[in-house]
User: Fold this.
Amino acid sequence: LGNMSINELFENFFGMSLAQYRASVVTLETTPENANADVQNAGYEVIWIEGDTTFVFNTTIGCATNPPSNQPCPASDMQPSIVIVNGDLTTSGSPHFTGLVVVTGSIEISGNTDVYGALIAGGTVTNNTGGSLDLTYHSDALERTIQISPFSAAAGSWRDF
Assistant:
């Protein structure tokens, strides 16, 4: 799987191409300029952001409340979402994701970023400013995304870094 393009990996994981998935499964589409406001506390959504995106605030996705940094969303508030950024992602705030984050390009961490669930990146993940990426595999959050999107994990698709 390591030699696959992001398009091949996505199709292997979700069972359809990015274009097919966008047309048939996405429930919330937004632009990079509006993403911070449009996705705040979005729950049980399949979110598509078209283009290079920067989260500059303490955006929370997949949780009905705003949990403290480095803390998972309480189970009673968990509403995991799938976030697809069709481009590069930069975080300069302290975003908190519960669910699955898919970035077709590269990721640059300039703030403290929490992901509870899983992260798929088509490019590199870099940290240029001393912020942190706290990635916690969260099987319950991923299991709950099945409520909003059909997909199946391919053998060998999980790699712990």
